[in-house]
Each structure stands twice: as structure tokens, then as C-alpha cells.
């Protein structure tokens, strides 16, 4: 059986980091695609030259030609522009829309059977465009956001409690923006409720820091946005699909009635396995949680409406 083929569209900070992780995990062969000439080829060769050192077999090639993604099992899209300090993810709407319009048709043409994971921002909108342009079924198009937002929340809980990140579970729903909905009620430390360890004030501060977590990194880096954690999150999703793991992970999934949402991508817990998004898990929400969730959905809908006006 051939090794899985993973195409990474966008060979920038996240793309390059993902290629490295894939090789280290020996998940499959990598094709790095970018519009910049030489850069994807250089990164791919550098990674391939590292494989004898860490002892994993993984072909890694870089290209500017979409034809090279032919037969890819998974395509992960980070093509786009990251934000700079002072920008929101929404400020990327116009420019990344145009990039998605050039990327998606090529995926449709050269990798019509692939599972597509989108990371480009504003995430919920870009993944919507990807599905619309490719026409792929909803199980094969998914956005990466919830795992990252949740990992940020887990890190902040670990920092505050001094306990292991491994034991900390959290969940964040909604759109991938400042209106995301961290759910402390569903978060715990190996089954023990967060309130056992942290005061309400501390939990509220963690929620606020989680919502602004992406901006915090942008403010520190100044020249771009987070890439190590987003890359890890996307590869966790790819691995769940490639190994049919049936993982329960928060992802941006296309909803058709679940959570009262129809025809939009929103962050919700899903079962991710060999058939992509195999199931959406509906959580019971309190009135307050529901209100926050609905607000986040309205924000995503507003941006999708704006999309129509951007030529
Ligand atoms: N086709 C292929 N690659 C493209 C295209 C295109 N049409 N347009 C831009 N790119 C490439 C750029 O040349 C660049 O190498 O996408 C890459 C993006 O890499 P970075 O600028 O390093 O950005 P990164 O940090 O990887 O983030 C990418 O993910 O988290 C989001 O907001 C972030 O939208 C941004 C995306």
C-alpha cells in the first residue's frame, strides 16, 4: 500500500512547521505548494535532509505547480496572509478570499477525493468558501480552530494551577474570533470540575485570555501570527483522519440544523475519523452559553454576507 500523501497549500510558517511534524511522525509523504518560487522547494529539501537524522521515511517535495498534489489524501490549506499587530482576523477577509478563490479550484481539479483542512483566516469564512467552490461533501471539508483555542485555554489553566497540561480538558465552541465561546462548565482536570481548583474570577480571566489568545501572539511576534500550535492542531486532525481514530475534537464543521445553525461552518465538537467529519456532537447549553454561541454565529453570518460585496 502506498504511503498517504499530504499536500500543504501555503509553505509559510504554518505550512513549513506542519511538513516538519508530518515527517517526524512519519505520517506520509508531503507536497509543499506555494506561489513563491524556490521557498517550498528549499523547505521540503531541508526537511528531507533531516529525515536520515531522525530516522523516518517520508518523501518531502516542494513545488509551485498544483499538478503535484494529484492523488493527495489530505490537503491542508494555510495559503493566505497572516495578521499584523492591531489587525483582527476579519481584516484578512478580502485578501484571503481572493487567495481561496485561486486555491480551491486547483484542489477540486487535482485532488477531487481529498479531505480538506482549512486554516486560513477568517477561518469560518474561508472554510465556507472552500466548500462552496470545491463542492466537496461536508464530511470532507473542515476548519481548524477549536483545537487551537482549546489548547490555549488548557495552557492558561495549567499556568494558573501549576498542573499538567495532559490532565486538563477544555472546550471552546463558536466562530474562531474574539466572540468564541470557551465553556468552563465542560472543562475539567481529569474529571474534576475547574471550580475545584480556580475561583470564578480566575476562570473569567482565563476565558478572556483565551478569546484574545491569537492576538496576544501577534502582539509579541509583530511580523505574523502563531504557527507552532496551529500546525500541531492541524496535524492532530490529519492524523485522526488518516488513522481512523474517531477522535472527539472541536473543529469548524458544516452544520445542517445542529445547534440551530443551517448552512454555515461553526466550531463544535465532532467525531473525526477515516470518513472525515463523521458526526457532530450536540452539547446542551445553558441560556447564557446559547446566547454567546448565537452571537458568535451571527458574527460569522455577517462576514459571509460581506463576502458577497467583495469583488
Ligand atoms: N497559493 C499558494 N500559496 C499562497 C497563495 C496562493 N494563492 N497566496 C499566498 N500563499 C502563501 C504565501 O506565499 C505564504 O508563504 O501562503 C503562505 C502563508 O504563510 P505565512 O505568511 O507564513 O502565514 P502563516 O503564519 O503560515 O499563516 C497562514 O493561516 O492562521 C492563518 O491567519 C493565518 O491566514 C493565515 C494563514
TrEMBL record:
Its EC number is 1.1.1.37. The active site is at residue 176. CDD domains: LDH-like_MDH. InterPro entries: L-lactate/malate_DH (IPR001557), Lactate/malate_DH_C (IPR022383), Lactate/malate_DH_N (IPR001236), Lactate_DH/Glyco_Ohase_4_C (IPR015955), Malate_DH_type3 (IPR011275), NAD(P)-bd_dom_sf (IPR036291). Substrate binds at residues 83, 89, 121, 152. It comes from the Bacteria. The keyword NAD applies. It is an enzyme of class 1 (oxidoreductase). This is Malate dehydrogenase. It comes from Thermotomaculum hydrothermale.
